Amino acid sequence: MANNDSPEPATSSSAYSLSIPRINIRRTSSDTQLDKVQIKSASVYNIHGLSGSQHSLSVPPIHKDVPGYRGSNEFILTDDKQSTMDQIKAIGPWFRRKCKNVCRRKILYKRVPVLNWLPKYNMDDAVGDLVAGITVGLTVIPQALAYSSIAGLPAAYGLYGSFVGCFVYILLGSCKDVPMGPTAIASLLTFQACDGVWQRAVLLCFLTGLIELLMGLFGLGFLIDFVSGPVSSGFTSAVSLIILSSQVKDLLGIVAKGNTFIEQWSSIIDDIHNTQVGDALMGFICIVVLLLMRLLPRIKVGPPDACDQSVVQKIINKSLWLIGTARNAIIVVVCGGIGAAFYENGKQPFRMIGEVPSGLPSVQAPPFSVPEMKDANGTIIQEYESFGDLLQGLGSMLIVIPLIALLENIAICKAFADGKPVDATQELIAIGVSNIANSFVQGYPGTGALSRGAVNNASGVRTPFGGLYTGLLVILALLFFTPYFFYIPRAALAAIIIAAVIFMIEVRVVKPMWRSKKTDLIPGIATFIACLALPLEYGILVGIGLNILFILYHAARPKIHMDQAVTPCGVKYLMLTPDRCLIFPSVDYVRNLINKHGLKSQIPVVIDCTHIYGADFTAAQVIDTLIKDFKSRNQLLLFLNLKPSVGNVFEGADLEYRVFYDFEQLDKAIRECRRKSIPA
């Protein structure tokens, strides 16, 4: 227990004293129990509780040579700690308060964002959303067809996951620029988890959405803070290369399999001698054309300022922008026309995506098992899988996919937030409910795609209502255009994916990272290599694990600032100031350093605890050993500016120590102990 050295409250020369026994001091920002103490120039303060009782707190005057207290000076007095039984009894009232808060108007408007912007919706918003929604729709349809091939699913499933989520996000989404739907990364993760079995993919969509919703309800959006920038860059770059590699087989018209980067290229090399010239020619031409069309929006005719341009110049510039933005749809239409023109009596000049079921998918619950399937000869081609088998097969992907989906979504929100705060919890709820809804129309997991988000923003979207027009365009495609999807060459879809993902390889971050902090490259490069060589869920865990190791090492090796000070009467002492909290990885290191400096100086040692904002039981035990070390060699050890929360930890471990909050009292204690030549 902290030693006051005096029974008198107001006239004591101790570090601090209180007018009532057994009372704790704790720092807080709440005023629900007691009023805050404002530190003024008086020596004794009267503290009035809400119940009308009065206590006094003795605060010694500030030393004339010290401009102010070095620690926090906002404290309130509270009664003794509650017993365990009292804390259990308080759970009921706490839960009732939480339930009452959920029903408040403010929370309702926060969790259903459409209530904020819909009453203010006007004609300008409607026009902006209409243009943006149609533009994104022209982008999402070819992307959905292409991404379904990454997921190893028939082309229809990409479209099935591209419209219901758009409608749900209108109600729950907090960012106007997020277009819900399949993404390249989510599609690759789906393929690695489901291996092309649509029942697994649909169930994965449902479970992913459920986990995202639960994470949002429990406020677990902070989990993405454990994925650092270097790890995210390494993961994204590795995924981009894996996606690119997975499309080489369609680009060349060959057969190849594999989940990892190494497996894919090994399979490609084995079958590369079967390359189809027609597919390869079309694929490479499409890549070149797509990259050139990507540059069209940057071309400006006339003066740079739009206000100074003529009507003809504005029309030309808008047309160039529209052609560049809708390049994927243009390639699909042109290549589909070429495929249809050369298709003759079942003879396909290129490998085509094949039959796409016409009409909307049936609304039904996601499958919780996979039925057994046999071919015409009675051979089992797909074994029966129960719900437990499916859960075991999905494994860690049930955690990895929600986290990656949130990362993608938050990236869009931050990119176009214009300085506004991003609510990760609300985004988790929005994409969670969207994925749950998608699973009832046979969609697979999706989230916001950064490429489509950029198109959405550049198209002038005003609110999330633009998703309505995107979803309606996908529905129209399913109702009326699916017969024509048959003729789309797979090489054209592969070219669309390759032309998009090559810009996801984040080479540009290496140079600034090297200049800023070279050690950040270690988890980034490790994540990149691990994701290429191992399944993706293990790769990202490697990166997160390395980051945590760096954090733990940083916490285990605090810096200790050393100053040699002199009291007004000329007694020298050593002031040691640790720069962070005391937790179990660091306490032995701190103890050894303090003992080392103490043995070397053989003068009183004062530990300035201003920056020690937390401690644990292990730290308290080691500090107890440190105090005994100093006592065994008759050397004085004192504590300055100890936070009350840390003091509570020390007192709980029955430590005998002395703490001060004023330099005058500290100097007096050092002088007295030095004169008596005995330990404190």
From TrEMBL:
This is STAS domain-containing protein. GO terms for biological process: transmembrane transport. It comes from Anopheles culicifacies. It is found in: Membrane. PROSITE patterns: STAS. It is a multi-pass membrane protein. InterPro entries: SLC26A/SulP_dom (IPR011547), SLC26A/SulP_fam (IPR001902), STAS_dom (IPR002645), STAS_dom_sf (IPR036513). Keywords: Membrane, Transmembrane, Transmembrane helix. Its main location: membrane. It holds the Pfam family Sulfate_transp. Residues 605-673 form the STAS domain. PANTHER family: SULFATE TRANSPORTER (PTHR11814). CDD domains: STAS_SulP_like_sulfate_transporter (cd07042). GO terms for cellular component: membrane. The chain crosses the membrane at residues 126-145, 151-172, 201-224, 280-299, 320-343, 390-407, 466-486, 492-510, 522-553. It comes from the Eukaryota.
